[in-house]
Amino acid sequence: MHKVLVVANETIAGRALLDAIHRRTAEHDDERVILCVPRATPSHGRVIYDDVVYDAAQVRVDLARNVLRDEGIDAVGEVGDTDAYAATLDAVLEHSPQEIIISTLPAASSGWLRRDLVERVQAATGLPVEHVVVDLDHEPLPFHITLVVANRTSASGELITYLKGRAKQSDKPSLFILVVPQEGGGTAADRAARGRLRQMREALHGEGTWAAGMVGDPDPYTATMNALNFFRVDDVVISTLDETRSGWMRADLVERVRKAITQPVEHVVPDHATSSA
Question: What is the helix (H) or strand (E) element at residue 200, kind and residue range?
Fold first, then answer.
């Protein structure tokens, strides 16, 4: 079996990278694609929650496997160390690939290139290493990406219906990245958030629609801003209870996010089946 290790983060579903993988599968009938996504360090919040960092990388793994599966390529994937070099060497030791593809942003934007990742991996492993550049500013991903932030309202049928309606209006396949902030932190809060996340993800899966998600920081603003740091999205949907019951509304979450980013932010209140642009 011929094994190729693919190391990428933000560019994991970029067209140039997918084309490089396709070339390998065309050359080898017994090709095995192994995805390695190093974890990224969040830029917001005083406390770094390891589960949040892991979840963000796992979302990328799930996304890449779905994209490759749609293109007829079966792949396995794993979350790697926060250091891309260490993550790559760990994957090499575990899987013994015959070659490596490392995908990065252009040099001006890539921290990996500033740390000479490609050359260091090639020197350390002795394996052929192909460097693929994906410029997401000029080559957007082939789907419309919406970040959805919700907790108590995540299981609302009205919210799910609203999101599915948005997907039908899009001229590209829709990808929903779901963020469910924990309530207060701790094991019980994490378990409750993951249960809500699972229900929401299952409800949104459908033809032309993908959903992947993560549990977020207990502070919803920090959870939202970290997700925006992890992923490039086209727009944001924040779902809350109504003003009389919502702590997020009392904390002015929606307006704070609107002021901090350039993407459109929709506010959805499922109990009232309303939204405001």
Answer: helix 187-204
Buried b (16+ CB within 10 A) or exposed e, 45-55: beeebeebbeb
CA distances from 50 to 33, 73, 100, 190, 201 (A): 27, 30, 27, 12, 21
Task: Write out the chain's pLDDT in tens, 277 residues.
Answer: 899 999 998 888 888 999 999 898 888 878 899 999 998 765 554 544 567 678 878 888 888 888 888 888 888 999 999 899 999 999 999 999 999 999 999 998 899 999 999 999 999 999 999 999 999 888 777 788 899 999 989 888 899 999 999 888 888 888 899 999 988 767 788 888 889 988 988 888 765 678 888 888 889 999 999 899 888 899 999 999 998 889 999 999 999 999 999 999 999 998 654 444 3
Q: Are strands 99-104 and 129-133 parallel, antiparallel or unpaired?
A: parallel
pTM above 0.90, yes or no: no
Say if CB 155 and CB 125 are below 8 A apart.
no
CA distance 110 to 137: 13
Residue 84 phi/psi, 5-degree rounding, is -60, -35
Per the CB < 8 A criterion, the answer to whether 91 and 36 are in contact is: yes
